[in-house]
Structures are given as structure tokens and as C-alpha cells.
Sequence to fold (393 residues):
Amino acid sequence: MAKKTLRDLSVSGKKVLVRVDFNVPLKGGQVADDTRILAAVPTIEYLIQQDAKVILVSHLGRPKGNVVPELRLDPVARRLEEILERPVKKVNEALGPVAERAANSLLPGEVLLLENIRFYRGEEKNDPDFAAGLARLADVYVNDAFGAAHRAHASTAGVAQHLPAVAGFLMEKEIRMLGSILEEPKRPFIAVLGGAKVSDKIKVLNNLVPKVNTLIIGGGMAFTFLAAQGYGVGRSLLEEDKIPVAKEIMQVAESRGVKLLLPVDVVVAQEATDKAVSQVVPVSAIPAAEMGLDIGPATRKLYSEAIAGASTVLWNGPMGMFELPPFAAGTQAVAQAIADSGSISVVGGGDSAAAVAKLGLAGRMTHISTGGGASLEFLEGKELPGVAALQDK
Ligand code: ADP
Ligand code: MG
Fold:
């Protein structure tokens, strides 16, 4: 599983193609959130210090093989210049003569940003000729785009067949943190799973149940589990066809001595709005006309106490519709409990990461994965194509 990293090869004076995840939100022609750019800076700074010629490539949005002017990477180049406090060259191509000339004219320590790689059809198709064209720009390939590693695209996988291919520092950290939690967690190991649907998380649940000591379930998917136990769940999010899956997961947990915690009370309302009139009810008394949108106070206490005893916590999926203030308390309580537990804490999933950031608790987690979909697929136990393509140590 261990992959070669930047440190395993000499890059001085070499042209290094770095796949980064600069898929950032833009607003009014500016970068609205630079979290993902900042996450790639350690790799970029290291390459600059090593006198490499740094060639950055990323996708932005979903141009689907077309040139979409609003999705050019110029705003990203400007923001990166501010962060690095040095010039960042930008070309309007990602391969071909213009890009090659720009790459070949780089001096050691200089940085070039290529155009949005998804302007080209060959990228998402992982076209071999396209990947070879991209590889012509450089001597070495570094993948630091964990967030795109679950895609077998030309810039995340195909290009690695043509060049020495290693992990950047962000990629290395993601693999190490997510990998160690699955392979050798410090026990007790608790997984807190929530979010919207059971169907989104079946593979994560199946992969985690045999590995954890305690499984805590919240969010919309808790209602399918409650229904499997025979409770009426009113108009809560329920996937009737997934009741057998929920039953099976509960059985596996029981047979393996895994403690499984489900809500004992929930916050219900007639509608999911920020002005909704809500009330707390035990799970045995969910009104037929209402829906459960958060875990209740007794559940918050139950879950927080369990989390306090953990040595490792993996969290994926909010406990309720945390985007709406009346239903945010459960997610807040769990996030706080994880922060206070002093455990090794790893957060995966886009909405969970957003929730932790919104609550101001990001600095108190051991690791927050930068890959939404990629972190989920990793937690499902899949080998990601972007990781598989890198050289083994
Ligand atoms: P992540 O991105 O961290 O993997 P998910 O995408 O699985 O998380 O789930 C996040 C979504 O789940 C949020 O939009 C949240 O509003 C929703 N959610 C949480 N609890 C409920 C609930 N009880 N009913 C409906 N939706 C819920
Ligand atoms: Mg999500």
C-alpha cells in the first residue's frame, strides 16, 4: 500500500508535473474559498526549494471537454501568486506546443499553471494519446490531488504510465491518515456515521462494521435502521428497500460484538425549514405527520459519552440537517465531543468537513480529509485509481 513520495526522488532542475486539486469555488471572477489551494502549498513550496520546475495541472468545475471561459484557471493563478508571494505563470492550454514551450522555458524554482484540464475530451476518457501528450511536458509526475484520486482520468492515472509517478505531501497524508485508521486503529475505535441516505453509505458501513468497536448512527439514515427495529418513523427519510440491509448490518454488528448505537430521541418537525416549529420525541413516538431532522438531547448525551471513551474516531455524515439552525444541535454536539475526546479523529465526507469548519472545530481534529467522494471510496475499502497508479515504495 505504501507509495513513493516526493522525498523518494531527486527533482532538482527537473520539470515536475503536479496534479493538484484546485477545483475551488469562484465568485465574481475570484477564488471564494482557497482551502484546496492552501492544501497543495507544502508540495509546491518543497518543489520550489528543491529547484524543480513546477508545472501544475488541475480541473475546475464540469466543462465536459469544452472550453468554458468562466472556468479558466486565471483567478486560481492570481490567488496562488498571493499565497506563494512569487509569480505564477499561466497558459491557456494544458498540452501541445504552447504549453510545451512554456514548460521548457521554466527556470528552476519557477511555477507554471496549465489550463483547466477538463477543457479537453481526452481527460475524463483517460485517452492514452492524451495522457502521453500531457506526459511530454515533464520529467516526473506528482499526484497531490487526493480529491480527484477516485477518478481514472488522464491527469490522475493515465499520465503515470509515462513518467516516474509519486505522491505529493497532501496525497501522502491522506493515504496515511485514512489508511492507518482502517488498518491499525488505536482502540477503542468508534465510527460515527450519518448523512442523508443508507444507500449512499452501505459500502462504508459494510467495510467498517468488522473493524470498529462501536458504531454510532445518526442523520437521515438512522430512520431506516429504526424502521428495521419496528418503529414508525412518520415522514422521516426512509429507504424501505434498504431495511433488509440495515437488518443485516445490525446482525453482523451483534455477531461480532460491535456495539451499535441508534437514536433514542429525535427532533421532529412538519417541514424542513429554518423557521420550522420543532419538538423532541422519543423514537417510539414519532408523529405520523412529522419528520425526524436531528438527533434529540438524550441521544446527544448518549453519543457524546460514548465518544468520550474512544481512542480513535472516524466521522462521516452529519447527525441532522445541520444547514438549518433548528436541526444543527446534534451535529454540533458530536463534533464537540470528538474534539474534546482527545482521540485520533478523522473526518471524511464533504458535508461533514463543511460542518466541522462551520462550527470552528477544524483545528481540533487530527485530520479532515480534503476529498469528499474520494474519502468515501477509500473508506469503502476501494483502491483509488489515482493512488494505484503511483509507484510502490
Ligand atoms: P458527507 O458529505 O459528509 O458524506 P452526506 O452527503 O452523506 O455527508 O450527508 C449530508 C446531508 O445529510 C446534509 O445535507 C444533511 O442535511 C442531510 N441530513 C442529515 N440528517 C438528515 C435527516 N434527518 N433528514 C434528511 N436529511 C438529513
Ligand atoms: Mg455530501
Notes: The pocket of magnesium ion (ligand 2) is lined by residues 349-351 (CB under 6 Å). The first helix runs from residue 35 to 49. The longest strand covers residues 15-19.
